[in-house]
Amino acid sequence: MSRINIFDTTLRDGEQSPGVNLNQLEKLEIARQLERFGVTRMEAGFPASSKGDFLAVKAIADTIKDTSVTGLARTVKSDVDAAWDALKGAAEPSLHLFLATSPIHMTHKLKKTPEQVIETAVEMVSYARRKFPIVQWSAEDASRSDWSFLAQIIEKVIDAGATVINLPDTVGYTTPAEYGALFRYVKENVPNIDGISLSCHCHNDLGMAVANSIAAVENGATQVEGTINGIGERAGNAALEEVAVALKIRSDVYPYYTDLKLNEIKRTSDLVAKLTGMYVQANKAVIGRNAFAHESGIHQDGVLKHAETYEIITPEMVGVQSNTLFMGKHSGRHAFKDKVEAMGYQLTDEKLKAAFEAFKKLTDYKKEVTDDDLFTILTEIQTEHASIGKYKLNMFQVQYGSANIPTATVSLTTPDGREVETACTGQGSVEALYNTLDALVSENLKLVDYQINSVGGGKDALAESHVQIEVDGETVNGRGSAQDVLEASANAFLNAVNRYIVQQGTQRTADGMK
Ligand code: KIV
Ligand code: ZN
Q1: How far apart, in whole angstroms, are the C-alpha atoms of residue 94 and residue 165?
Q2: CA distance 374 to 372
Q3: What angle, 0 to 180 degrees and rounded to 10, lies between the N-to-C axes of helices 333-342 and 371-382?
Q4: Strand runs (DSSP E) across 254-391, as ranges?
Q5: Is the distance from the beta carbon of residue 101 to the nearest atom of ligand 1 less than 6 Å?
Q6: What is the percent of the chain where pLDDT is above 90?
Q7: Ligand 1 centroid to residue 245 C-alpha, Å
Q8: What span, in angstroms and rounded, lies between the C-alpha atoms of 458 and 19?
Q9: Which residues of the chain are under the pLDDT cut of 70?
Q10: Taking the alpha carbons of 486, 487, 492, 494 in that order, is the dihedral positive or negative?
Q11: What pLDDT shows up at residue 169?
């Protein structure tokens, strides 16, 4: 069995998913979970792209000590320097440099000849190696590049000091046989490839990202790149949990293993889904809600007689437990703290106090507080920035009935401490509420997306809302939960506006990323 390194890019390529926009605390929480999951390397962001990304990469590099942290850079000195400044505190600083090698990218995007591309790549790899012990070089759009050109440039960048070579299928165009053959070709035609780690990076435009990644592994790749839940640019990246479980379940045909703790899959997937607002579909492989549900009578009967008749993956293997009952009204602070720690959260005393209060409030309305409820509350509190200088909801009231005009009254405290109140109407209860909130906040915003979900089942389930708003041309996400759907909706709206306030001043400057 040979070991396959897992390179997670949820915080970089995954964060490039349309509509995803994580703040620093959310990125840190995901990074901690990726460390617990056991990924070999995590790509924390693109430090030169914005001040926010720089600070998030730096915070992750300074915090995560059991996993190698990397950052993305274009082949320009200022990107490499910014990445070094962000990553130098990491336990094992590593850099991910990329430059396109396909004719279409070189001609139309880079406007460089192949010779100029080689020269730039070599110059920047050797510059980066003076700072970083690990330098990964990616031939962007490798799957649409000329293979003999690839062999030539790879040999040169290895001579210049690259320690990992990545061959991305940037536009999700390749097929398993073709991608596997590319890896074989590179292994056989690059004279100095021995001792260099070969990496695959697949996008899912044709739904083949996982299959392509495994084909690369079968043909010499020793590193697989991907994201949790397969999120990412356009149709996303290879879903790491699917790659890992496929290698495990079919170890009879795949003689490879990873260091991932498969029973952390569920928590990792849930956390990423919650924080990005990109929930996985019920029938998603490995981790979808229906992955272990057997609907037909024949299947249920078979599973009851012998689980393996219809179940190739056990729920326990990927960390799916039945929604365990947490505690109720009478649970004390001590038991609560133990539970919080057992669930993998490290809260400050102040946040623990806030979480306990939120839990107690919930027990007033909900008899049975489940792990899912608690996970929602804890994630919200752990990733919330301090509430100074932000909008605060004091009270709201919505009048709704099929025979009258929906009307909402809201009172808020504004970031400068004033109490404001007004009422507005709408076509429905949520619209009335949102029109009122919109009238009260001074930001000029537009609602782009609105989602409401229940956390677990039952009539008394907690409601969780995700919104996306556009403020002054910037897209910001917001999340909020409450027992009531309208309160959860109001919380999500204000959370988005508050995040905008926190984020102000940070602006993406880099372009051309994939
Ligand atoms: O898909 C891609 O080519 C990328 C590169 C930046 C590696 O994400
Ligand atoms: Zn990519």
Answers
A1: 13
A2: 5
A3: 80
A4: 256-257
A5: no
A6: 81
A7: 24
A8: 30
A9: 295, 322-327, 387-388, 505-514
A10: positive
A11: 98
Residue 40 is given by DSSP the state S
Identify the CA nearest to 513 among candidates 125, 12, 76: 12
Q: What domains lie within the chain, and their CATH numbers?
A: 2-276 (3.20.20.70), 333-382 (no CATH), 392-513 (3.30.160.270)
Residue located nearest, by CA, to atom 4 of ligand 1: 514
274's tokens: 């919650």
Query: Would you state the pLDDT for residue 324?
Result: 61
Q: How far is CA 41 from CA 90, 249, 371, in A?
A: 12, 23, 29
Both tokens assigned to 54: 């720089």
Amino acid occupying residue 459: K
| pLDDT computed for residue 364 by the predictor | 86
Amino acid at 487: E
For residue 277, the CA-to-ligand 1 centroid distance in Å is 23
Alpha helices in 70-197 (DSSP H): 77-87, 103-104, 114-129, 147-159, 176-189
What's the CA gap between 36 and 42, in Å, rounded? 12
pLDDT value of residue 300: 74
Of all residues in the chain, what percent are helix, strand and coil, respectively (each to 5)?
45, 20, 35
What 3-state DSSP class applies to 125? helix
- pLDDT at residue number 103: 98
Select from 25, 129, 29 the least CA-distant residue to 75: 129
Distance CA 153, CA 138 (A): 11
Q: Which pLDDT tens digit goes with each residue over 174-226? A: 999 999 999 999 999 999 999 999 999 999 999 999 999 999 999 999 999 99
How far, in Å, from the CA of 502 to the mean position of ligand 2? Answer: 28
Expressed in angstroms and rounded, the spacing between residue 13 Cα and the centre of ligand 1 is 8
Q: Is ligand 1 within 6 A of the CB of residue 12?
A: no
Question: In the numeric block, which tokens belong to residue 192?
Answer: 């100095």
